[in-house]
Structure of FAD/NAD(P)-binding oxidoreductase family protein:
Amino acid sequence: MMLSSSSSFFLNSKKPLNLPIKPRKTPILYQNAPQQPPRKKPNMDGTTKYRRRSSYGTSRKSILKKSFNQEQVNFTAPLPDDPLVAIIGGGMSGLLCALSLEKRGFRSTVFDTGVHGLGGRMGTRLIEPHHLLFDHAAQFFTVTDPKFGQLVSGWLEKGFVREWEGTIGEIKAGGRFTTFPSSPPRYVGANGMRPLADSILHQATKVDVVRPCWISKLEPFNGKWYLSENGKPRGEFDAIVIAHNGKCANRLLSTSGLPLIAKQMKSLNLSSIWALMAAFEEPLPTPIPFGGAFVKGVYSVSWMANNTEKFLGSENKGPHCWTFFSSAAYAKRNKVPQENIPNVTAERVKAGMLEGVEIALGQPIGSIQKPFYSRVQLWGAALPTNTPGIPCIFDPFGRAGICGDWLLGSSIESAALSGIALGDQIADYFQNGKDCPDEFAIGLEKEFQPLEGHDIGQFPGLESEPSTKESPAYQLAA
């Protein structure tokens, strides 16, 4: 896997011009033609500076409202023979999109915000010096699609994943645990879910990775897309892929010139989940030893998993590491900006979730041992509640697409299939879309339908009851 420098993509190291968008009756055509420079305004010292456009509001509603005032980008520059694709988001869908493009002979650059590694919602935390290990996002996945099954078989052979044979079931308030009578194979990352993401690209030769990087702006200019991070150039590309969702994706789309894609993103509804990582000196008083349980009848908790059993086996005598997930309703009631969680909120959520664990296990409130390590994290835009039921979205006029788990379902399998589909769609477009680009449009008008499952995701083939209406069914796995 090759690493890319941040600014080497720009021709002559020039920044793209920043033109204010004005209403027009016909689409703006971006082609190989010069543009006028932005208006200048005098400084106090007599020099000039570029007039900056006013910033948009930070609310998702404000961002989406303004996105419909923009004109549609319509690239007319000839399709390049060796295009370069930017993929914004290094979760499962973004990575599989990159690999799909590579198999077709195309280059791509993946931009990801991850400080510790790739993966998005395939998150794993290693806490030293105690060597505590937590999967604190996607917990496991199942396989039903043959194409995804073939991919997973390759991961098994390479040691990237393994089957999780721990006991999985449901636990109702009071400690009533029921093991699922039958279940398809359940897979987890061999060393955690995040290392799986890094391993996927280990043999890639046409994929560059730039992280941590938070792409903040997309600008169409002179037949290409120019990306920047808070004013810092991040390259020029022939097509772009948005491989994440939520407020940040909406902000990118609000001024990019892609109202058709922005309209579809507007239709997406998202919920949230709190994750609590907790390590205990002694085993928890579970009714039977189990690896994971969907929690029923408890307001503050929807899932609990024994990471120590998952990674080290049931015979391990060391610290006992657990991941607990809140219900979607509890997360909604306690939602705050995930980038700046107040200490008082973090403590309140931790206390409420630990109390929920006691209720689920049938233990008196305050009786369970205190964890010697604990940390909460809010996944603020992790859980899609509806879906268009299509593999991907692609706008051939703007040379831009979207992939992600929410487009097909709500699982790691859905994320992988979506990324593969968009990679193939883009490859087909660059190979055959010169004369009739409109034939390669997909998903731009598709209606969304409610999505059902568990609070932490869909697991095709797993025999269990979905969440109730009081605790809606949402997805955490990528």
Q: What stands out?
A: The chain has a mean pLDDT of 82. Residues 393 and 443 are 5 Å apart (CA to CA). Residues 84-450 form a domain with the FAD/NAD(P)-binding domain fold (CATH 3.50.50.60). The longest strand covers residues 373-384.
